[in-house]
Amino acid sequence: MVTIFNRKPDRDESGPSGKGISRRDLLKSGGSASLGAILIISGSSIIHPKFAWGLETTNLDPQTMATLIQMARDVYPHDQVPDRFYAIAVKPYDAKAGEDPKTKKLVVDGVADLDKRAGKGGYLGLGWEEDRLAILRKIEDTPFFQTIRGGLVTGLYNQKDLWPIFGYEGESFSKGGYIARGFSDIEWL
Length: 189
What we know:
Elements: E1 2-6, H1 23-29, E2 38-42, E3 45-48, E4 53-56, H2 62-75, H3 83-99, H4 101-118, H5 122-125, H6 129-139, H7 143-157, H8 163-166
Antiparallel strand pairs: 1-2, 2-3, 3-4
Protein name: Gluconate 2-dehydrogenase subunit 3 family protein
Region (Disordered): 1-25
Organism: Phyllobacterium pellucidum
């Protein structure tokens, strides 16, 4: 079964069948939206055809991983950061779920709680960021939220391919430090 999530907030996302959007709606939309644009969940994979990346899962189902990707984007929102970096940041939870049954239960139960709080369509079905943030604020003291948020700090920001988007050049000690390498060149301050 293939489920397509179109994260465009200004339309009914369930489609006529209630299982994603129809091919006709997909073609009419031109593939534009956000959770970047479109995620296709099929078998044990999450595929983002517009930006040509995919994520294979082995221990958590793709729906759970897609929810974690959206949660990661909501917890650390950066419009200029493509979804593939968020997918890389949450991928370790799939591996940890295979190694530790407690971690798997924490993640699966946490995502189920998010979906339950979101109502029909689940967390991914909420098209407005404000609605998702309201749910996250209600669970911010839970072990699930704290575990995901804490892992995202390093999982997201330690990706060297992401650093140029933020203008970070990496460590400078081996290059003589920042003082001699443009310390006062900050344009955004």
